Amino acid sequence: MAGGLYDLIIIGAGPAGMTAAVYAARQKARTLVLARDVGGQLNWTLGIENYMGYQFIEGIELIRKFEEQVRKFPIDIKIGRAIESVVRVREGFSVADVDGTKYLGRTALICSGKRPRMLNVPGEELLRGRGLTYCEVCDGPLFQDMDVAVIGGGNSALEAAVDMTKIAKRIYIVSLTPLTGDNILKEKAKEAPNITIMTECETMEVLGDGMVSGIRVKDLKSGTEQVLEVGGVFIEVGLIPNSDFVRDMLTLNQLGEVMVNCACETGVPGLYAAGDVTNVPAKQIVVAAGEGAKAALQAHQYLQKCV
Ligand SMILES: Cc1cc2nc3c(=O)[nH]c(=O)nc-3n(C[C@H](O)[C@H](O)[C@H](O)COP(=O)(O)OP(=O)(O)OC[C@H]3O[C@@H](n4cnc5c(N)ncnc54)[C@H](O)[C@@H]3O)c2cc1C
């Protein structure tokens, strides 16, 4: 077991995990944070206008501030660790990463957030990172003066398309359904002179020999197909919870989110979950941070009762 016995192991270093770490450390809990990256979805967020205390802050800057605060405390932080399993053991929980390294915690907290959903069409796998991306915020500037397609019709897709109006030449929004995003974003997309909106259209294939050169689109109303010649494809069809590693242990809802009660309890004593990976509504930074704080305090109470 690496590092001995921790009071609390936190899986994830997004807003939920980092806030939980600070709360746990302030309770003098021996705390370990294991995560693939620092910041989670904040890495994909350009500007934030609704995290209190900052009228505007870039995602990267907020991560830096969160991390700075976490590192002020004696918290063990291991980044670049993909967790594969959490198992109940006599001492509490054994948490294993993909390399087989195991960590032991008296309690554990799942803050593993969400990841982009795939389209699952031919060409997607082959052209990923070769003009096909799931993060306009990260990769948008690479497509200067090009024609691009944004796949999806919700808020992420509309935000991506509107953002690309300053960078790309032409943007096609290709949505399987009528647009479902917020009205304000729909209006912005409709008003933009370089956005073409194609609803009830299915993306059948991403085309390209080495790099993206287009997409094959089927109009579901007429049944006709056409090829859009684009150099970039942004897949913005939503997010899925990173809950696979507790699938067999915990109750998940139909979206794959970990079911918790208002005390962030999962139903397994000593095992908590917080943030976007859970069924708690409103997937926002302030909510994830608040839930992380709550979960850490609940874990502390649990540990107090156990001694
Ligand atoms: C493009 C975009 C823009 C957004 N804009 C805003 C905004 O303006 N305002 C706002 O309030 N919210 C915004 N959000 C939502 C906000 O980013 C999320 O609600 C918030 O980041 C959720 O925090 P979290 O800690 O629960 O999860 P995440 O941020 O998803 O962090 C998850 C953490 O878990 C880690 N992890 C995942 N799986 C594993 C594993 N198997 N093993 C180890 N570690 C793992 C990840 O590496 C990461 O550290 C935006 C989201 C996106 C995608």
CATH C-level class of the largest domain is Alpha Beta
Give the structural class: alpha/beta
Query: What do we call the CATH topology of the largest domain?
Result: FAD/NAD(P)-binding domain
Count of helical regions: 7
Mind describing the biggest β-sheet? 7 strands, mixed
Q: Quote the average pLDDT.
A: 95
CATH homologous superfamily assignment of the largest domain: FAD/NAD(P)-binding domain
Distance between the termini: 22 Å
Low-confidence stretches: none
Cofactors, ions, other ligands: flavin-adenine dinucleotide
Rg calc: 21 Å
Order of helices and strands: EHEEEHEEEEEHEHEHEHEEEEEEEH
Q: Give the helix proportion (percent range).
A: 10-25%
- Tell me the overall shape: elongated
What CATH architecture label of the largest domain applies? 3-Layer(bba) Sandwich
How many strands appear in the DSSP assignment?
19
* Strand fraction: 25-35%
How many structural domains? 2
Structure report:
The strands form five sheets. Strands 1, 2, 5, 6, 7, 8 and 19 form a seven-stranded mixed sheet that branches. The radius of gyration is 21 Å and the shape is elongated. Helix content is 24%, strand content 31%. The chain has 307 residues and is of the alpha/beta class. It binds flavin-adenine dinucleotide (FAD). Flavin-adenine dinucleotide binds next to β1, α1, β2 and α7.
